[in-house]
Amino acid sequence: MLTLRENGPARTLALAQGLRLAPGPTGRSLARLEERGIVHRPERWRFSTWVLEREGAVHLEVLEPFWHHVDQNLRSELGPAFASAVVRTAERLPPWVPHSGDWLD
After folding, report:
1. Confidence grade of residue 53 (pLDDT, cut at 50, 70, 90)
2. Dihedrals φ, ψ of 15, to 5°?
3. Is 11 left (phi over 0), alpha (psi -120 to 50) or beta?
């Protein structure tokens, strides 16, 4: 939801790669959010873009102070160096890491 708010409409694959997630589960999660009116696809085809609805923006406005509080608590408990190391590590990961069962295919 944050990515859609900050970067605008995006396809499932781009969202999944940016979050270092598998595209399949990401698409299913987006479909569930669509059922709740949080996101939508203007066109009904497999590779269409996802758009954040007003309802989704409202959810982010409500949750944002909570997440800032969580972030501050984690940084104070773990230290700023730890938080920076986590971000650097995540940025070096491949676009998505397959689940252990996916390696057997």
Report:
1. very high
2. -65, -45
3. beta
pLDDT, one tens digit per residue, over 72-94 is: 888 888 887 887 888 788 778 77
Alpha-carbon gap, residue 39 to 26, rounded angstroms = 13
Sheet with 39-40, side-by-side order of all strands: 10-11, 49-52, 39-40
Cα-based distances in Å from 15 to 72, 74, 105: 26, 25, 24
Bridge-based pairing of strands 49-52 and 10-11 is antiparallel
Share of residues in the chain with pLDDT > 70 (%): 90
Helix, strand, coil share of the chain (percent; to 5): 65, 10, 25
Q: Which fold has domain 2-97?
A: Arc Repressor Mutant, subunit A (1.10.10)
Per-residue pLDDT tens over the stretch 16-29 = 888 888 888 999 99
**Coil vs helix vs strand at 40:** strand
